[in-house]
Amino acid sequence: MFDFLTSGQYDVLGAFWVTVQLTLYSAVGSLIWGLMLAGMRVSPVPLMRSFGTAYVNFVRNTPLTLLILGCSLGLEQTLGITLGGGTSKEIGFRLAVLGLIAYTGTFVCEALRSGINTVPVGQAEAARALGLSFFQVLTLIVLPQAFRAVIAPLTNVLIALTKNTTVAATIGVAEAALLMKEMLENEADALFAVFGVFALGFVLLTLPTGLLLGQVAKRVAVKR
C-alpha cells in the first residue's frame, strides 16, 4: 500500500521541507509586517490609522488564493517584478511568500492590537508624562506586555499559516499539496494511503508547534 514511498519517484520529505521554508519565511515576514500594521492602527497620526484600518479590512477579507495569484499574474507576468530573478520555481516561491506575508500580517496585526488593548491605559499615560514619545511608549512599555498576552493567538495564526501554505500550489510552488495532487493522479489505487501520509505530515508540523508555544504562553502570561 505504501510502495510509493520507497519507489524513489516522489520526494515527500523534500516537498514538506519546502512547506517548512514557506512557513518560516512567511512567519518572520508576517510578524514584522503585522507589527508595523498594529503600530499604524494605534498611531496618533490619522493618515496612518486610516491606512492600517483600510489595509487590514480589505486584505483580511480577500481570499488568499486570489492574493497569491495576484502576486504571480500582477507582479511577475504583468509588471515583470521577479524579486531577485532566478528560475521560475525560485520566483514562484518568493511570490508565494510575499502573498502569505501580505495576508497573514493582517491577522498578526489584529492579535497584537488585542494585546495592546489589554495593557492598562494608565501605563501609557504615565510614560507620556515622563516625556517618552509615542514610538518609545509603544516599543518599551506596551508591546513587551502585549506580546506576552497574545502568544496563544499568534500560535493559532502560525498554525493557520502552515496550513495556508498549500495555496502556494496554485502558482506551481513544489510544496506538499502540489506533490499530493500529483500522487493522487498517479496512485489511484492508494488514495487513502496518500491522504494519510500527507495528513500525518501536517499534524507533525502543527501539533508540536501548538503544544510548545502553548506552554510558553502559560509561562510568560501577564498576571493581572
From TrEMBL:
Q: Does the keyword Kinase apply?
A: no
Q: Which domain of life is it from?
A: Bacteria
Residues annotated as domain ABC transmembrane type-1: 16-213
Q: Does the keyword Membrane apply?
A: yes
Write down the CDD domains for this protein, in alphabetical order.
TM_PBP2 (cd06261)
Lipid bilayer topology: Multi-pass membrane protein
The regions listed as transmembrane in this protein's record are 12-37, 58-79, 91-109, 129-147, 190-214
What is the protein name given in its UniProt record? Answer: Amino acid ABC transporter permease
